[in-house]
Structures
1.
Amino acid sequence: MASPPSRTSSAQTARSAPYNHDNPSDPPDFGTGGTVSLRWGDFLFQTSSVAAAASILVVLAALFVLLVVDSRESLVRYGIAFATSSVWDNVKEQFGALPYIYGTLVTSAVALVLAGPIAVGAALYVAEYAPAWIRTPVSFTIELLAAIPSIIYGLWGFFVLTPVMRTTVEPALQRIFGPIPVVGILFQGAPIGKDLLTGGVILAIMIVPTIMAISREVILAVPPAQREGMLALGATRWESLRHAVLPYARAGIAGAAILGLARALGETMAVTMVIGNSSRAITGSLFTPGYTMASAIANQFTEADTAIYFSAIVEVALVLLLVSIAVNIVARLLVWQIGRGDPAALGGVLV
Amino acid sequence: MTIEATDARRMGPLIPALAVPAAAWKERAASDAAIGGHAMRVESLSAWYGNHLAVHDITLDIKPRAVTAIIGPSGCGKSTLVRCLNRMHEVTPGAPRVSGRVLLDRHDIYAPGVDPVQVRRHVGMVFQKPNPFPSMSIYDNVVAGLKLTKAPSKAVLDETVERCLRQAALWDEVKDKLKQSGVSLSGGQQQRLCIARALAMAPRVLLMDEPCSALDPIATYKIEALITELKREYTIAIVTHNMQQASRVSDFTAFLLAADDRIGRLVEYGETAELFTAPKDERTEAYITGRFG
């Protein structure tokens, strides 16, 4: 432990001649136990940091307890059927949240599929190809997108994206993919614009900045020796990206995708405005109006006039919390496996 | 090395841009004796980073099937020089630039129209820090370069992996774990894996940029023994700040030095035995006797 200068012995400060090792009358000063105030500082710092860490767990636990208590009535009455039934009828007091769970998972998956390649592509451009004078403004602009309040995305989605989806994008998708078996199932029905697909698209736009910004940092952190090692074998620039840089960065890029996914799972306002807000039963098509769990809560919370209705809404929140935690755990396992650089193990997780 | 690879080398350049008519090739082969024989000749080479001249007017030969050491204190430009020999200098950040000529088997690798990517397939490189690709197995690391250009059959790949790992004196240590990640090996093993990876491309010249600087003495000893073994079939240029290493492994030595202007210049070039026992330049003598650097 380093001693503050004030506690240095006078014998040391006053000495001008070289230390005389043969003089036993001048022992080194190791302190005399007068370091209590210093230990107090240690104690205070340690305690406060432990408290800070513990408070996060306490908040999570409190959240969980509150949700369980407030949804008790619904939990007891519907049991597991709450998560497996597709009927949501507050008049008949039948509450099954499966369409909401489905809506959340599907819109988030669509968002990830659309945003992932675009974000990683943009990150590669900024990190590897862009000249310095372009790099900063492009990065700044993309990161600025992350700071835009979601209600603004919602309004834009409502007035701009929805009509475009209805009149142009969805009919085109239907023409191209509709006749193909299996894939075509996703694009059946009347293109109405306000549906799961549009919800996924707006989420994709919102999570691109997150994934892009983190991927860029990850790509920039790949050691130059990895790039050069591949170039020195006669690889082109693209080949060195493809075979050295991206594999090295893949755990970090997957981590970036998870952060994007986490945002997509919980996003409420923008999705509510474009998803159609319908509790109808699940179909395979993305052209179905639906609900995500978050948008269902936001939309119906104020209408919950009976105790059981309110309780059911809170249970949706509980399920959303559990689904988010589950997705995060699975995704983290995935990143961990990828990070070990063992391709076989990755396959094991995916299967 | 297999017979095919040796034949391919005798048959002449594989790079279209470097191809010469057979008659001219014969004529040049005849003049080989006059030149004294070289795999690579560096002629009036200067290299810059932006406005900073890093090495100035270097002329030296890299003799075939021999080890040429490039020595000198830190900052003398020896790494820059060696990175000019496979056109890696130009991928370094900081506005790199080169002037002069570098002849590989009498063909200028800086001639207009020469593709640097092709040059690097003929001039291999081993780096200061071992840099195996962590996402690839040991097996895939060895054939990473081969797989870039063509899709060789499994039999060819298997043969290449075993041959190159044997040449790199690594086969016995890894033959039972070829599917494991390349980074599961020790530092010295990783560096030998990187050597095997470079050998798999059957390079005409192998460049080594301080290959032992991150290794312990035993691993260093193994690499040095390996270099001595490899020079029977390969042409090697090695950068080192370790004079003992240069004197142990090399046949020819080039001594570079940067004066106060931080511009690296060639002070002396000659046979290693001569340069270390009877240096012609007093700066060389000062350096090899440990008076600076």
2.
Amino acid sequence: MSLDSKIPHGEMDKKWTDYKGHVKLVNPANKRKLEIIVVGTGLAGASAAASLGEMGYKVKAFCFQDSPRRAHSIAAQGGINAAKNYQNDGDSVFRLFYDTVKGGDYRAREANVHRLAEVSAAIIDQCVAQGVPFAREYGGLLSNRSFGGTQVQRTFYAAGQTGQQLLLGAYSALERQIALGNVTMYNRHEMLDIVKIDGKARGIISRDLVKGNLERHFGHAVLLCTGGYGNVFYLSTNAMGSNVTAAWKAHKQGAFFGNPCFTQIHPTCIPVSGDYQSKLTLMSESLRNDGRIWVPKKKDDNRKAIDIPEEERDYYLERRYPAFGNLVPRDVASRAAKERCDEGYGVGTTKLAVYLDFKDAIVRYGKTEAGKTGNENADHNTIVEMGKEVVKEKYGNLFDMYEKITGENPYEMPMRIYPAVHYTMGGLWVDYELKTTVDGLYALGEANFSDHGANRLGASALMQGLADGYFVIPYTLGNYLADDIRTAAIPTSHPAFEEAEKKVSDRITQLMNIKGKQTVESFHKRLGKIMWDKCGMARNAKGLQEAITEIQALKKEFWSDLKIPGDINEMNPELDKAGRVADFIELGELMCKDALNRNESCGGHFREESQTEDGEAKRDDENYSYVAAWEYKGESDWQMNKEPLTFEIVKPTQRSYK
Amino acid sequence: MGLTGLFLITFLVVHVGVNSCIFVNDGGETFNTAAHFMSHNWILRIMEVGLFAGLILHIIQGLILWKQNRAARPVKYSANKASQNSAWYSRSMGLLGTLLLFFLIIHVSKFFVDTKIALYADGGANDASHNLFEEMKEEFQKWWVVVIYVLGVISLFWHLLHGFQSAFQTFGINHKRYTPIIKAIGVGYTIIVCLLFALMPISFYMGWIS
Amino acid sequence: MEHYNMNLTLKVWKQKNTKAGGSFETYQVKNISSEMSFLEMFDVLNEQLITEGKDPIAFDHDCREGICGMCSMYIDGRAHGPWTKNTVCQLHMRAFKDGDTIVVEPWRSAAFPVIKDLMVDRGAFDRIMQAGGFISVNTGNAVDANSLPIDKKDADAAFDAASCIGCGACVAACTNGSAMLFVSAKVSQLALLPQGQPERESRVLNMVAQMDKEGFGNCTNTYACEAECPKGISVSNIARMNREYLKAGLSTEE
């Protein structure tokens, strides 16, 4: 099958405007007759459902949580980028576009990224109008900060809770549409399959997680806004419930999966403390603005961090990357930490951690404060106390969070950090209109693959989720539905619904009937370990091949020795989890295949075979400048389709942070 | 609740003011004059009706609250360490109020009703000879009456300690600068009013006032 | 920080569904590390129960980093357990010692019916939001974000109120089961911002009416909500809502 990305012709900065000017429209009377299903109600889903409801479509929205307000978009800390240039520091749509394409290591689609940069400003306007309390200056205007090493200050934020505030804004818009009757909300419901009629997505089969029964829902179109699949690694910064199931069902129904191996590993997370660990907690990237990262120069140094003298510390990022130092991009910082730990320089009980030290920042700030108060001769202790106050002001909530989790006081002891899976740039392949390869089936936000290439920049995930939901899908969906106005609602007694429901029901019964000995959690942990060890921060052909074999074996074991307690027709969280882990196992295999195929290093994907002499990632534009869109053919059988990436504006260069 | 509460709080100022006249220690002359004024001035007599209405309303509101709040938690916690998140007296306003009500019934039947009987029975024939001060002096020679009164005042103390500042919160008055002042005034008010009230029976009993 | 292991007795509320009655079950867990989170201790227990062929304990949880508001356990007589400004998922086992008996119950409120074991239905909060917890602005209608300066003081106060995670600890901890802190946080946030002015009066009236309809108790200003709120939302928001409600109630013509 040939992939048509449907990128409009014309100049890069005119494409979206032209598209909007010529796109087909649906008149208000017809909108009332058209039903849309939105699965997932995070930033992308809630904003899409609310916007489409406002336009007059009949929307049904689904989430597995107890309320749309719980979606994991809520956990994003840092901020949201927008090309507002409020700081007069030279930002523009072009620069945001350029930075995003470059940051993605030239594996994103230029036209999509340009559109993202274009609508970014409107997102901020929309959110402010909804009452999102962004940080402000004393003059009453919005405050910005620089994030993730960018040269301009374009990140809008609300303390360390930007995701929460944006989600609650979208959630409030969604609740308003629910109150108006334009959106019907299905909480604690999980989508378990897509229903296709004549090749078009026409509905879903969902399960009421409280009662356990299956339901059929018709829609003229189906939107998947179900987030990323980082939990395939078991340990990640994702929420416990985050899963790939909706996207995976779509994939098995014909939606191609784009660049599944593109995973972002975030460098500053709290390290694992034991086997019981259920998830990892991110510490905002902003900490790297002031913290210095180091390990002892001696292997297996068991001294306390504060007892290790300055000359015996290896500030390895500053040593390797003098130009960027501790502010190198996420992928580079993560790999460097792994390299040190693999070499035996790691710290803490597990030896899988490095120090993030604020000692120097505290003294530096303390001296400035002392200077401000004219107290130049202050003694060291006074300076440190003053410095701690400043650090507390800037990072207090993060320091508190660290202390709650580890029981250690980061003002006294350096923090221990280690990289963790954080975001997945891969996802369902979509064209310019966000439509997957199944007609009528769309993917928005982290669930699609499109905008971040091989590495996402800080503060861009929130931007993309809301761009898709508020400003892209309201236009592109109309273009599809305009041709569908004569299609009356299809009754869910249609054989296609019957068949889909039976398939779902059979699978649930099959899962319940395995009646083996091992728990879902234990399988998930094993899958996670395979993925982390062999398809994690550094990958090689041998490891990936082993991983594929191991995952296939794990799959067999899963389907023959799984133990699920309870019954089908009741609330049964273990059963919910089992279905998700079954899908993760299949996805894991595809991720390894994709990683194996891509014999180059780009962004978050690092193939050991493709590195420079001094161990830096080496991209191979000649052979791999394409999107790998995988088509499901059958069990453990995929066909790769290529969407070639052409760069008209941002010419690929090797990233260097030396 | 707040409105009627504040109203009753204002009444207590008057009440305690008049009662404090006993501490002049002039054989009750000042006090009786004041008490006479209170019971004979027609404006005050109309306000007295308002006072009772306010009290009854306060009680009814309290009962409604109690009923609704009980219904809001049909299954109780089996382990509940409420003491770690709030003050016991703040959570016990219903109980303290009930104790106060019992006390008030005793109190009113002792002094108020007597005064009214003196005022209205037999066409007010006994009004002139009715000496509230003497009556109090006599009553407060009994130790158990003193105990009841002191207990009543203790209930009042806790009730006011929460009620005073709570009323302001209910009216939406919560201010970084003023709320601490309101709270301080509330505590001061509670202590002074309750101390004065408690001193009355105790002073009579101990013979500090004759 | 000294690490240690502990054995614990857990008394956990078990209830099959909303209609069924519930009761406490006693469980023993062994070798629990002081480094574990409370929910990880529950994971360990559930794994143990499943392996033994017993019914695991259902509980709500998702982000496990204290922001989604899903986790909701009344632990040893406290909403979200013994630590303050904390959610269950952030509570770590070093809060307990070897040999402790821990009682775990669901939020108790008529407005939050138990779904199963420790899970409750907080749909009432969504319905209160539907009654007015929004600014009616359709997508694409917004003016430039900097066209309306907002006093930093007000913006910060609005943010503080908006940091509510909707977990329901305020209701759970309140001796009256009142939802005033939750409702007032949203009313305050929007009343403080210029964008919220057009619907200011109808919002507070409608949200309070919905709150009462849901069967929450009344506020008697014990301030337990503020003490137990994982985000430290201030009761000054309740005062603000009272003010808004009085003003709106007096001026409304309906």
3.
Amino acid sequence: MNTTSFIQLANATSLPWPEVPVLPVAELVHETALELERGARLCAWLGVPENYGVSLLAGLAFDADNTLAVARSRPFTGGYPSLTMAQPQAHMFEREVWEQHGVTPEGHPWLKPVRRQEKDHPANGKFFEVAGGEIHEVGVGPVHAGVIEPGHFRFQCNGEEVLHLEIALGYQHRGVEEALAGGPHRATLAQMETVAGDTTIGHATAYALTLEALAGTEAPLRAQWLRAIALELERLANHTGDIGALAGDVAFLPTAAACGKIRGDFLNLTALICGNRFGRGLVRPGGCRWDLEPSRAGQLLEKSRGVLADVNQAIDWLWDANSVRSRFETVGAVTSRQAADLGLVGVAARAAGLVRDVRFDHPAGWHRFAQTPVSTWPDGDVFARARVRCLEIQRSGKFLEEQLTQPPEDEFFGQPGTLPGDTLAVALVEGWRGEICHVALTGADGKFRRYKIVDPSFHNWPGLALALRRQAISDFPICNKSFNLSYCGFDL
Amino acid sequence: MFVFDTLLHRARRGCETMAYPRGTAPALPERHGGALRVDGTKCADDCAACVPVCPTQAITRADGKPVALDLGKCLFCAACVEACPTEAIAQTKDHRLAVRRREDLFLGAPGMEEVRLAAALDERLKKLFGRSLRLRQVSAGGCNACEADTNVLGTIGWDLGRFGIQFVASPRHADGLLITGPVSRNMELALKKTYDAVAAPKIVIAVGACAIAGGPFIGHSQTAEGAGSVVPVDLFVPGCPPHPLTILDGLLRLLGRLD
């Protein structure tokens, strides 16, 4: 990368706000488009309220160079030329900025609310409609048939075939970012742990890294090690649950039944460390709250071997069944070009052949010392997404095996230190769904002036919508499960 | 080969459903503190060490009064337990937490040291629902942890179906709702409509700190303060999230199926 418009920084580091380059907004859009054209990825695109107007902050990732870059616009009001026209990956970001700060991306092709409220329901706006005598529309949700979070899906169908799917979210909006302003508050950590409750370790780690980066400190090595182990346990539990759910949706009951239980076994391994099945109360800014002492680590290793053997067996049944493979293959395909254009992350991106993994591309914390190979599959369909999960289950199992036998000698508890004023920090963590991005900017008083959370689901929901094009509507459940995105993580 | 493998594997593992409630309950994780017990008489004069450490402001101490803890707001982070110099607030390791009335979660006053566990439904409702209870789950701002640990009750380890309890796809098929989340403003209408769609008589179960009082989002303008602020609630199950055993205990207690 050879650019002068952006300033580079490594993952989980900070820099003084005045050092972030300031460009006229049109130029920021232009320069961002150029960098994205050259292969950068848009991690964050957010507004920072100023005395007069708002400034836009662009956060990019140069995966091949293992570096991040930021730049911001001069404060402005009104409108700016939309980035989405050149780079579809900005689509949701620009809608969000428009909704939060009232600046209009001029020329945006589908400018409508993301999660805003209208009386007692989200302001969904007008849905995209396909016209024609043979066309019918199917609306699903917000309350779904399973034990699952709410969201609304609007299908335009010709018979069984889906021509277009529009996903309207916002039902889960709890005002997380709004509450963070002026923080950290007493409840901030608990809110971070529940941004997406199934990604407690992921978001809590991103938050801890952000605070530590702001303060210019680092958690003790043993805490970093423990966070990395907990992150893989979270991945194992959720990937196992997803494989079981996919098996259930094609009526392959042996794997569905087994994985339902095995997922709980993995959650219990997290509970062995901290008492809570979702890892609540484990990660603390500055360190960890609990230690994983040798006898407990030994117990964890032994139990994890048993659970991994169970899940591998259940996975073998799945791939042995022709009926399962034929239901998964070619369904809900997203090409690697589409995945790159939309800026997909995590399993969905890797299943479309993109080598994209924060643990590998932007290692922070323990991942600087212990690497996990990136698992990819080329086809981009339901099969590929299931396959990548299975590969990652094996990689994570191997990681546990290696790490649990070599704990670093160090403290596990620490203090993050005081937060300096006017500082910007960026932290990425590869959660089980994909890239979690936290961006924090402190004001002169060292309190949060702006805190932005980008859950991987924010990037990936449009991927699910695209995957449904030309598919049978009856394949929606397996497509949806193969992405398994977060509603509350998106809605914040 | 997989049919053969599967059958063999199943035969080898035998029945994986836990013996509870006929046998003993599975142990909570060692570091899971279980329910809290608050003995206000143990509070030192002028001590309020627990009050500022609580993330959800569940603890108050008025001048000259003993400490008061609202377990409905509690996230079970145990910060208060660590802060308390006199062990007035202590963990009991007890998984049983579900109550019928909101005030049964207020702890601290003499005689109110622990939660007042849920009583069963009245005879008429017990006759209707005791052996067959169909629930519609509504997540209204839930973070997917309470949902996940509700879902896990349907797996082979817990097998909720053996009690005649089942989650159904439509409120029209349901005898009641199981609600998670603080009730985001954006879900208020959908929750009301779902509630209205359930035929009377119906019951409502609030699972988790959010659904009881707002949890970590207490006081947010974008959320209500739990399910009770939108619909009447018959059972409160505290936790963040509650352990599956705690949820199961609550359901069975409500149906009068535990002694």
